[in-house]
Write a structure and sequence with these properties.
With 296 residues, the chain is of the alpha/beta class. It has a single domain (80-293), classed as von Willebrand factor, type A domain (Rossmann fold, 3-Layer(aba) Sandwich), CATH 3.40.50. It has 9 helices and 6 strands, in the order αβαββαααβαβααβα. It is rod-shaped. It starts with a helix and ends with a helix. The relative contact order is 0.13.
């Protein structure tokens, strides 16, 4: 009997302890909740909804700063089509070797002066035309597989110079008007570049003293020059010998340049105002190469 009373008394005490513990938890919860409610009520911005920054997007970045920079603009290549018309009439028999040396120096200068104007299908193509009573074109604008074979400017330069070294002498009288007309024909008949000639500049370099067969008049040559100009072709005259200012052996040999014809050929052609340049003058090779390829 005593044992049962002891167990009953212990159970009552345990029940009282559990009830007291639950009462304490409810009081603590009420006190904490009240404290939070009081603190939030005291905050003037508690009921204000947050505003996202202007332009902000949630998710994967799509702003412009994340995109790669645009590709730089690439200037189109400097395309040049050049025909060198070489007077090979009888009076230049003794000057033939020097004229070929001038041509080779010019070819070397075009290759060397600027990378953008070197020989190649999309850069500079060059033709060599010899003329007297007829015209021949040993090197064509569309030669070397349209300046694609060989592919390097250096190798093309060597092949052009080899062809110049093999140039023979024609003799007879010169028909300058017909030679100028033949350059226009060659420009038009040469095979275009694979993607078109585009903005290719056309230039004729004329190595001559301006004298022609007696059947050729000043008006004939002038008409041919106007035809070139109407086609947008620039003419750069180079005299084989220097201008004669007084009597010399050149007078007797007929080698004094016809200044009037040369001035008419080169009117407003050279940037510095010269009408023509002597072949053997210092700086002529560099100036002609620069004018023909538009390299400054």
């Amino acid at each position: 009997m005593t044992g049962k009373l002891f167990l009953l008394f212990g159970a009552v005490l345990l029940a009282l302890a559990v009830a007291e513990a639950k009462k304490g938890r409810r009081k603590a919860h009420f006190t904490g909740t009240l404290s939070r409610d009081v603190m939030m009520a005291d905050d003037p911005l508690f009921s204000v909804e947050s505003i996202e920054p202007f332009g902000t997007k949630i998710g994967q970045c799509e702003c412009k700063c994340c995109q790669p920079p645009p590709a730089p603009l690439i200037a189109p290549p400097c395309r040049n089509d050049i025909v060198v018309a070489v007077d090979s009439s009888a009076c230049f028999r003794d000057h033939h070797r020097r004229m070929k040396q001038f041509l080779q120096k010019l070819v070397n200068e075009i290759h060397r002066s600027n990378k953008e104007s070197q020989f190649g299908v999309n850069k500079t193509r060059l033709a060599i035309m010899q003329f007297s009573s007829t015209e021949i074109i040993p090197v064509r604008l569309d030669g070397f597989d349209n300046y694609q074979n060989p592919p390097s400017s250096k190798k093309l330069k060597l092949l052009i110079n080899d062809a110049i070294a093999e140039l023979g002498f024609l003799g007879q009288g010169a028909y300058l008007d017909k030679a100028l007309n033949a350059t226009v024909t060659h420009f038009n008949e040469a095979t275009p570049r694979p993607f078109g000639n585009g903005n290719a500049r056309k230039t004729v370099i004329v190595l001559t003293n301006g004298k022609s067969h007696p059947d050729v008049t000043f008006s004939d040559v002038q008409s041919s020059v106007k035809h070139l100009q109407s086609q947008g072709i620039k003419v750069l005259p180079v005299s084989v010998t220097r201008q004669c200012y007084s009597y010399s052996a050149e007078w007797d040999e007929g080698l004094c340049p016809d200044v009037n014809v040369l001035k008419m050929l080169g009117e407003e052609s050279y940037t510095d105002g010269d009408d023509f340049l002597p072949m053997r003058a210092s700086g002529t090779v560099a100036t002609v190469a620069q004018e023909a390829t538009n390299v400054s």
